[in-house]
Write a structure and sequence with these properties.
The structure holds two protein chains of two kinds. By secondary structure, chain A is an alpha/beta fold. Chain A is built from twelve helices and 14 strands. In chain A, helix 4 crosses helix 5 and helix 10 packs across helix 11. The chains are: A alpha/beta, B mainly alpha.
Chain lengths: ~350, ~290
C-alpha cells in the first residue's frame, strides 16, 4: 500500500476508501421553486484528472458547482469532495478546494496583493506566509507590476488571472472553475489553458464548466454533457464524437469544373452518400475506414489528374455532437430557463 | 502580458496540500482579517470617508452656528454644550446604515460567495463587519469630540461618569450593528439601504432631543420624542458628560427620568429582537 493510499484510508472520511475519487456526486437534485435546476446528476472525478461539465446556459452547470463547493445545498443526493461530505463536513471541503466563480469575486476595492494576502490569512496562513505566497502568485500570473493597484482598475484578463491566483492561495487539491474563459479574448484564453495544464501536471484535480466545446476538448480528460439538469452524455471527446457517426473525408478541388468527377471518385471509394458543395468546391462523405479512405481517394484523384487544394479526414465537431444529442445547438441561450447561472 | 507559470525559474508551489493544512486560528483572527478589509474599503471610497469625517464636522458647525442661536437650552447653558450629546447619539444610530451598506455591497459584488467558500465561520464575517464599522464610527466620534472642544464643549463631569457615557455609546453601537445586519440582509442593494436609512433612520434621529429639547415639540410628537431611545441616549450622554439638559420634572415619563437605564433596556431589547432575526435573514440572504 502506498503512502498516498495509507493517508486516504487513515483519514477515514472517504465514502469509498481507496477509489481515488476527488469528486463523487450521486443523484444531485436541486429545485428553485417550481423549476428543477438539477434532476439527478452523477459526477465522478478521479484524483488528478480534468472533467469538463459542458452545456448551454441554464443547463445546471453553475448549480452543480455551487453544490460541490458548499455554497448551495442539494435537495436530494449526496456528494463528497476531496473525501469529505459537502454538507456534513463543509469546512473540511472548503479547506481543500479552490473556486473561481463565474463573476470574478476578487474584491474590487482592494489591490491585487491585498486580495491575495487577505485570502491567505483566511486560509489560516500567518500574515508573513500569506504575504510571501502573494508575492510568488503575483509573479507567476504576471501581475507583479499591477500588484499594488486597486483591482477595479484591472482589465478583464488581469482580473481573471487574479481570480485564478486567488483560488490557488491555499494550494487546493480540487479546483472548480466556473466558465473560466468566458469573456476572454483568444490569446488570454489560451494563456489560461496553459496555466490550467500546469496545475494539472502538478496533481491538482480540476472540474470546469464551459459552453465552449473546443475548450472542453482541449482541457478535459472526461466531458460530461448536461442539459436541463440531466447528464445526457459522458466520455472523452473522441467517444462523444463517435456518437454522431464516424469520421468524414473531405476534398476541396482546385478546379470547380472537375467537382463532379471528384465526387464520383469519393462515392466509389466510400460507398456512402456524398455531399457536394459547389460554392466551396467541396466533396464530403462519411466513412468508417478512416485513413485508408484518404489514401484510396488520393490515389483515385491522382490517377484522374484532378488538382486538389485540400484533402482531409475530419472528426465531427462537438457542436455537431451537441446538436445530435439535444436537438438544439450548444450556444442557444435558453431564455425561458431559470436565471440559475446568475443566482 | 504573458502568463509564464510553466517556465518561471522558481515556479510557485501549487502542489495540492493535503495533510499539512495549517491549524485554524480562531474566529477572532478571521474577524479581524475581514475587518481590516472593511477599513481599507472606507479608505478607498472617498464618499464613505467624507461621510465619516466632513459630514459630522459640518453638522456640529451647522447646528452650533446656524440653528444654535434660535434654540433655547433647558436649564441654561450654551447650545454647543447641549448639541454634542445629541450629535454623538445620531452618529451611533447611523452605524446601522454603515453595516447594512457594507453587507449589501458584499452581496452585490459576490464577495459573499468568496467568503462562504472559505474555511471560516459566518460569525467571523459578521464580526468583521461589526469591528470595521465600530472602528469607523470611532473616527467621527473622535473628530466631533475635537471639533466640539474647539467650539467650547467640555466634559464637565468626572472621569468615571465620562467613561460610562462613552461605554453607553459603544453598547448602543453594538445594538445598532444588529439592526444593520438585518437591514443589509433584507434589502438587496447598498443604494436601497441608503434609501431606507434616510427614509426611516434619519427622521427617527430628528424626532428626539438630538438637536432640540423635547419640551418645544407639540403634543403627540413630544410624546413620541420622549419615548424615543435616541432622546434618552442623547440625554444620558449629556448627563454623563456634565452638559446641560432638561432637569427631570415630576410629571416626566419614566424614560426621561431614567435616561441611562431606559437606553440600556433598549440596547438589550434591540439585540434580543434583531440578533436572531438578523442572523436568520443573513443566512437566507447568502444561501442559494
Amino acid at each position: 500500500m502506498t503512502d498516498t493510499t495509507t493517508a486516504l484510508v487513515e483519514r477515514g472520511h472517504r465514502s469509498e476508501p481507496g477509489t481515488g475519487l476527488a469528486v463523487d456526486a450521486r443523484g444531485l437534485v436541486k429545485r428553485y421553486g417550481a423549476t428543477t435546476a438539477l434532476d439527478g446528476i452523477d459526477l465522478q472525478v478521479p484524483v488528478g484528472t480534468v472533467t469538463a461539465v459542458l452545456g448551454p446556459n441554464g443547463a445546471g452547470k453553475t448549480t452543480a458547482v455551487r453544490i460541490l463547493t458548499t455554497l448551495t445545498q442539494a435537495d436530494d443526493g449526496t456528494a463528497t469532495v476531496a473525501g469529505f461530505d459537502v454538507h456534513g463536513q463543509a469546512n473540511q471541503v472548503r479547506r481543500r478546494i479552490g473556486l473561481a466563480a463565474q463573476d470574478a469575486t476578487v474584491d474590487p476595492l482592494l489591490t491585487g496583493r491585498e486580495n491575495l494576502v487577505m485570502l491567505g490569512e483566511l486560509h489560516q496562513l500567518s500574515r508573513k506566509e500569506a504575504a510571501t505566497r502573494a508575492v510568488s502568485l503575483l509573479e507567476d500570473f504576471s501581475l507583479t507590476e499591477a500588484a499594488d493597484r486597486v483591482v477595479s482598475g484591472y482589465s478583464g484578463g488581469m482580473r481573471r488571472r487574479l481570480d485564478l491566483a486567488a483560488t490557488l492561495v491555499s494550494r487546493p487539491s480540487v479546483l472548480f472553475l466556473d466558465e473560466p474563459t468566458t469573456g476572454l479574448d483568444p490569446r488570454a484564453r489560451s494563456e489560461l489553458w496553459t496555466v490550467i495544464d500546469t496545475l494539472v501536471d502538478r496533481g491538482t484535480t480540476v472540474v470546469l464548466t464551459t459552453q465552449y466545446l473546443e475548450e472542453a476538448e482541449r482541457l478535459a480528460d472526461e466531458i460530461v454533457v448536461i442539459d436541463h439538469g440531466k447528464v445526457i452524455a459522458r466520455g472523452d471527446a473522441r467517444s462523444l464524437k463517435r456518437t454522431v457517426g464516424g469520421d468524414q473525408v473531405q476534398v476541396v478541388v482546385s478546379d470547380a469544373d472537375r467537382l463532379q468527377e471528384a465526387a464520383a471518385i469519393v462515392d466509389h471509394v466510400t460507398g456512402f452518400d456524398v455531399i457536394v458543395d459547389p460554392a466551396t468546391r467541396t466533396v464530403t462523405a462519411p466513412t468508417g475506414r478512416g485513413v485508408e479512405t484518404v489514401v484510396l481517394v488520393a490515389q483515385g484523384l491522382l490517377r484522374a489528374r484532378i488538382g486538389v487544394d485540400d484533402l482531409s479526414l475530419r472528426q465531427p465537431t462537438l457542436d455537431e455532437v451537441f446538436l445530435s444529442l439535444t436537438g438544439t445547438p450548444a450556444h442557444d441561450n435558453d431564455d425561458d430557463e431559470p436565471a440559475e447561472e446568475a443566482s | 502580458m504573458t502568463i509564464i507559470l510553466a517556465t518561471t525559474t522558481a515556479p510557485v508551489d501549487t502542489t495540492p496540500r493535503d495533510e499539512d493544512l495549517p491549524a485554524p486560528r480562531g474566529v477572532l483572527h478571521d474577524a479581524w482579517v475581514v475587518a481590516r478589509r472593511g477599513l481599507i474599503h472606507m479608505k478607498r471610497q472617498p464618499q464613505a470617508l467624507a461621510d465619516a469625517t466632513i459630514q459630522p464636522i459640518m453638522f456640529v458647525l451647522l447646528f452650533a452656528y446656524v440653528f444654535g442661536g434660535a434654540i433655547d437650552v433647558p436649564g441654561g447653558g450654551g447650545y454647543r454644550e447641549f448639541l454634542m450629546g445629541g450629535i454623538f447619539a445620531q452618529t451611533i444610530v447611523f452605524i446601522a446604515m454603515g453595516v447594512g451598506m457594507s453587507i449589501a455591497f458584499d452581496r452585490t459584488n459576490k464577495a459573499v460567495d468568496r467568503f462562504r467558500a472559505l474555511p471560516i465561520s459566518q460569525a467571523a464575517v459578521l464580526g468583521g463587519h461589526a469591528i470595521a464599522n465600530l472602528v469607523k464610527s470611532l473616527l467621527p466620534i473622535t473628530l466631533m469630540s475635537l471639533c466640539g472642544l474647539l467650539i467650547g464643549w467640555r466634559i464637565r463631569s468626572g472621569l468615571a461618569d465620562a467613561l460610562v457615557g462613552y461605554a453607553l455609546l459603544i453598547a448602543f453601537a453594538l445594538a445598532m450593528i444588529w439592526v444593520g445586519v438585518l437591514l443589509g440582509s433584507i434589502v438587496s442593494t447598498p443604494e436601497a439601504v441608503q434609501g431606507l436609512g434616510f427614509g426611516v433612520i434619519f427622521p427617527i434621529t430628528f424626532i428626539a432631543s438630538t438637536f432640540v429639547p423635547t419640551e418645544s415639540m407639540p403634543g403627540v410628537l413630544r410624546t413620541i420624542a420622549e419615548w424615543n431611545p435616541v432622546t434618552t441616549l442623547s440625554n444620558a450622554a449629556r448627563i454623563q458628560f456634565g452638559n446641560p439638559t432638561a432637569a427631570p420634572a415630576p410629571g416626566d415619563p419614566w424614560s426621561i427620568a431614567h435616561p441611562l437605564a431606559y437606553s440600556l433596556i433598549w440596547c438589550v431589547l434591540i439585540v434580543a429582537v434583531c440578533a436572531p432575526l438578523a442572523r436568520r435573514a443573513y443566512r437566507r440572504s447568502i444561501s442559494d
